[in-house]
């Protein structure tokens, strides 16, 4: 066997411990398959004395991740510290500059500094692998880098945040409101004490920006992602979706349009019989549409020690085998700065839910506002909800608001927003109109 | 850029034409990414004059695939002829012996001769890549070879034949019998004139034997696959499945048990809410259970020119990049000959449908036969079917047969078969008992 490949691992939380456990379990077989011994040489974390499910005595210890990154003792620096700046960034930069390969699970860092770090890796002729940064155990990065290369990618989308999908699944199954399910998710450990990063859509947007770069040969442009979280979804939306043949998912979608690249994370109506609709609970998925392959989807665990370790280790084995590629497929200097396609230019179908005062002429006025914007309707349902809508009066009372749900044909977001603003101004609705995009799948 | 990588393509049917079209569309970009020009140097097929959707004038032509395989003009031999023996086998062997890399979509050939061909490739230090041989456009081979390496695989399973899944989907949705749907599928081009290879399960078994080898480091053992086709499934089975919360899929499943490796292709009850249940129509899927990653599933097109070409080309690009691995992960000489786990040793839950004469004591006798084999029941439903069962008399008539459906707890196939044989012998049923395995997902 050849020379060993020596790892330095910085960050010994859940994922770091998982990587050490995986290597303890399967390191020997992996070394055989890679053709050279895979050795953990040194580790680093903030607090050596913290209780961990692993024995660290066999590894050199350093408190300084940046020093570890530069150490002559290692060939690969595995960054599992997290955070979009600070020591994670400093140590990765130090490693790349010192000619060390880097493996990281840090989506926030790459979403903000991906293109620059990729350039640094390429200048130094080393790998910057980040399979674990997108959708945990799902090997989507390698699939896009290597397996789907023969395609022009037209769209990439997926369920990229397990916390949101868990909450939406429970809301759908149990008819309960967001706040209540969130609280339970926090109690069960599926949501953080400060959940805004997940439920607000930022985490999914980090991952989407990396997928978009891989798909379209574009510079990573996290600040171009349009983001809407799941906080405003009501039980009434799930009921309407069910009636109309849809499910509600927080989808991240990136596609090329005439206006540039559209990157968006928002609650989305997906047809009940689409594969993505069947992905429930904390599970993630990523689908890629390509001109030759059609559509390929991968489903699996988006987080957790074991799945994330599986991805980190596959990145390490690639390096051990000498497989080093441009991090974002296209070399960093050749990645294109696409126009950001504005959301108002987005084209698609829309779901609209109004709470309409039951007065003569109200409905005609609303229909007129839609017609003014040339929005045509696929279906209109006026129905008594299974659960009460907020702001809805006694339905026996004349003039009390009635829920009205509409599905539009293909139109633009500009037209929808303009129509809804006018409808709200006209005063025939008792609350702000609710709108959700429909994704064609 | 370095030296070009020169391809010889044998077989210019749908897939061969697709590969040429893909390279015409994206060859330049692929060459850039691979770091060297990818060139089709020569092609071969039986009939040069056949009308094809591509211009062949730029390529050398030879009628002799074996001569092409050995040609000094090529570096990679792409075999798209098909067939488990004959010219496909002869030309691949010739190519490997001449030190040419081989890319093939030929599952039948690999199912029968995979281990020997892998050994030949390794002896000659060349690649034998077969992404397109398993599940068409789904990049499952590379995912198992490279991305999931850090796992001990415990089970691999999937929907591996699009024709069967199409027929089952139509039967389920429309409540129609097998023969009628098959005939329609043949008319629409979704099934061959002689459909036995697909509907009988052989094609899925070919693919399963390759997945099992990749998963367990085992020699390819197609003759160890237990095979049952979909011909016997009746509308009444779909109705019962629906009532009980299941769907019916032709699943290929390979797993390690105490008795060896179980490889089986058969109609399977899968829970309605499992991801595999949502895979409809001609779409395929493959799921892999690993000790660290948990479960990862890939969904996509299992056949067709574009998807298959996408896989073939990714195999070519890997070779162009210098990535050459043991075809079945473990080196051929180290692949293990596992015991074949006999189906009678299979453990799982079972679905049983009986047509029971409504006579005093009949049901007690049946229950007794199950008890003798220590088979315990999770549920029993005695119901009037939505459609008539074959062999069922006038239900008003005393003593006429009544459909009875049972779901068992975990038991062995030995116990189930013994109980059903006794039940049939006892004469209280009007037709042979129907049995289907339930997969835990």
Structure description:
2 copies of one chain form a homodimer. With 441 residues, chain A is an alpha/beta fold. Chain A folds into 3 domains: 129 residues, NAD(P)-binding Rossmann-like Domain (Rossmann fold); 162 residues, Dihydrodipicolinate Reductase, domain 2, CATH 3.30.360; 95 residues, Alpha-Beta Plaits, CATH 3.30.70. Chain A is built from 13 helices and 17 strands. In chain A, the strands form 2 sheets. In chain A, strands 7, 8, 9, 10, 11, 12, 13, 14, 15, 16 and 17 form an 11-stranded mixed beta sheet that branches. A 6-stranded parallel beta sheet of chain A has the order 3-2-1-4-5-6, sandwiched between helices. In chain A, helix 4 runs parallel beside helix 9, helix 6 packs across helix 7 and helix 12 runs antiparallel to helix 13. The longest helix of chain A has 21 residues. About 1% of the residues of chain A have low confidence. Strand 12 of chain A pairs antiparallel with strand 12 of chain B, so a sheet runs across the interface.
